[in-house]
Amino acid sequence: MEAPASTTLVVVGEETTSAIHALEGFANVRAASLHDASDAEVARWSARVPAPYVVHDHDPLEHVAAAWVEFFDDQTSFGVLELEIERAVEAAVRHDFSVPDYYVVLHPEVLPTTWKHWWLGVLATASPSRVIPWPAEESLAKLLRRLPTARAWPEVESWLPGVAGAVPDRVGLP
Questions:
Q1: CATH number of residue 115's parent domain
Q2: What is the pTM of this model?
C-alpha cells in the first residue's frame, strides 16, 4: 500500500465522531468515521482523496494497542500481545497499512490510565511530535492550522517489537 499524498490524522478518544464531522465543511479537509473499515478500505479511500488533509478514526495499530492495554490490565496473556505485534509488523513490511502522520488524542485526561500510557507513552516515545493531546472542546480545524513539524515515524518494524517491553508508568523514562 502506498502512503497517501495527504497529511493524515487519526483521531482517538472521547467524542471522535463529532470532532471528525465538524471538519466536513472545510474545502481542504476530507473527514470520515472509518473505525469499522478494514485497512485496505481506508487505504483505498485515502488514496482517492484529493484534499491536503485526511482525518478519520481508523487506527491501523488498534489490535496492538488493545492487546497491550489488556495485557497490563490483566485481561489477556503476553502471547496475545506478541501475536498482535508480529501480525502488525508483518503487515507493515508488506505495506498493507501505514501509520498516520499524526494521532490526535481527544480528552486524554479522561482516558483510562493504561490507554493514556499507550497513547501518550508508547506511541509518543516512537515519535513525540506525532502524537498530539487535544481538548475536544477545541475544533480540530484550529489544530490543522498549526500542526507541528517533525521527522516522519520510524519504520514500524524498528520500534513496534519493543512495545512488548514498554511498561505503563515507566514508558518513555530513561
A1: 3.40.50
A2: 0.92
